[in-house]
Amino acid sequence: MKLLVVGANGQVGNALLRALAPLGEVIATTRSGQLDDGSACERLDLADVEAIAPLVQRLRPDAVVNAAAYTAVDRAEDDRAAAFIANADAPARLAQACAAQDIALVHYSTDYVFDGRGTRPYREEDPTAPLGVYGESKLAGEAGIARSGARHLILRTAWVYGLHGHNFLRTMLRVGAEREELRVVADQRGCPTPAWLIAETTARILRQGIAASGVRHLVAAGETTWHGFAEAIFDEAVAQGLLARRPKVVAIATSEYPTRATRPAYSVLDTARLRGEYGLALPDWRDALHRTLSDRAN
Ligand SMILES: NC(=O)C1=CN([C@@H]2O[C@H](COP(=O)(O)OP(=O)(O)OC[C@H]3O[C@@H](n4cnc5c(N)ncnc54)[C@H](OP(=O)(O)O)[C@@H]3O)[C@@H](O)[C@H]2O)C=CC1
Ligand SMILES: Cc1cn([C@H]2C[C@H](O)[C@@H](COP(=O)(O)OP(=O)(O)O[C@H]3O[C@@H](C)C(=O)[C@@H](O)[C@H]3O)O2)c(=O)[nH]c1=O
Ligand SMILES: [Mg+2]
């Protein structure tokens, strides 16, 4: 199988290069034409939407996995045009290019398409109502792909972290080493999900073949708050000798941590449909965190 990974320097993109390698030939694209390890790869700036179809036509992969996105949630509020190009226009063009050559497309979306007023885990068909530009632009990307006619799978995931890239885990490890005390919001509930879990699940799905086009939810099992996640990070980091001492993690309300974009208060995702369709078991978020920190290869 020949696979094209778009956005290979991101958290998920980086994990995909490892997870997809056993499936065959993996071609990577990044904005710069270089991978983070310094090696050369294909260059694709999604802002240059006209370059997308020619690249896909030239490389003719069996499947495209799009891991590129504008993910700076607060910055997107003041950078709407750029967020929409990367998260909506470019994925739609990519999907159209895939449709034209009967290439399968795997794409990722977010829990931030929901407004967070739900009271039970969100299912795929639940009404969306994004609270900010990032979520709005990702939702527009979902719609553009659905309209393209491409064989596709849109995996909505959430709270992605890993040892590579910008994420909450790395922020906590950095800030936790510098400060005695941290303040973290305890009234936003969700599902922390490591990049390796997303990548390994994607590999499994591609091996089996996409069962049916559409949106599916993919997150680690269980739920917590950002405060609960921070506490677990410090428990694990101290237990595994990554941090000498545990900072105090003070539980605060969202109102005490003002940000440019509003986040959903509740964005737990129900993964039953994906698990049923592909016969998957998804690990509990704590076990997934343990593996992320103990298995440094990830
Ligand atoms: N991070 C999270 O918590 C969550 C992420 N998701 C979704 O999962 C997917 C993967 O996210 P994640 O790995 O965390 O994202 P990252 O922010 O780690 O990586 C995104 C990558 O996209 C690249 N990119 C952005 N704009 C462009 C562009 N115009 N042209 C080319 N490349 C571009 C970035 O390149 P550069 O480094 O050059 O900017 C970066 O390498 C995305 O679809 C995201 O929306 C869903 C839920 C949660
Ligand atoms: C660093 C820090 C954050 N926070 C809060 C802010 C926010 O509500 C929450 C998490 O912070 P982040 O900046 O990592 O959150 P955020 O960038 O909103 O993370 C989101 O990214 C996008 C791409 C997604 O798709 C989402 O699923 C989600 O993972 O924790 C604290 O309360 N204290 C702190 O010290
Ligand atoms: Mg962020």
Structural description of this entry:
- There is one protein chain.
- By secondary structure, the protein is α/β, with parallel strands linked by helices.
- The chain has a single domain (2-166, 192-221, 269-283), classed as NAD(P)-binding Rossmann-like Domain (Rossmann fold), CATH 3.40.50.720.
- Helix content is 39%, strand content 17%.
- The chain has a 7-stranded parallel beta sheet, with helices on both faces. The chain has a two-stranded parallel ribbon with strand order 7-10.
- Strand 1 (2-6), helix 1 (11-20) and strand 2 form a beta-alpha-beta unit.
- Helix 8 packs parallel to helix 10.
- The mean pLDDT is 97.
- Residues 7, 9-13, 31, 44-47, 67-71, 86, 108, 110, 138, 157-160, 165 line the site of NADPH dihydro-nicotinamide-adenine-dinucleotide phosphate.
Give a brief outline of the structure.
One of its GO terms (molecular function) is dTDP-4-dehydrorhamnose reductase activity. With 298 residues, this protein is α/β, with parallel strands linked by helices.
Search tags:
seven-stranded parallel beta sheet, two-stranded parallel ribbon, Rossmann fold, 13 strands, binds dtdp-4-keto-L-rhamnose, alpha/beta, single chain, 298 residues, binds magnesium ion, binds NADPH dihydro-nicotinamide-adenine-dinucleotide phosphate
> What is the CATH topology assignment?
Rossmann fold
The coarse silhouette is: globular
Q: Quick one: CATH class?
A: Alpha Beta
Rounded to an integer in angstroms, the radius of gyration calculated over CA atoms is 19 Å
CATH superfamily: NAD(P)-binding Rossmann-like Domain
Structural class: alpha/beta
Annotation field: number of helices:
10
For the termini, the CA-CA separation is: 23 Å
Order of helices and strands: EHEEHEHHEHEEHEEEHEEHEHH
The protein's oligomeric status is: single chain
Second CATH tier, the architecture: 3-Layer(aba) Sandwich
The parts where pLDDT drops under 50 for at least 5 residues are none
Helix content: 25-40%
Q: What number of domains?
A: 1
Content of β-strand: 15-25%
For the largest sheet, list the strands in their spatial order: 3-2-1-4-5-6-11
Describe the sheet with the most strands: 7 strands, parallel
Overall pLDDT confidence:
97
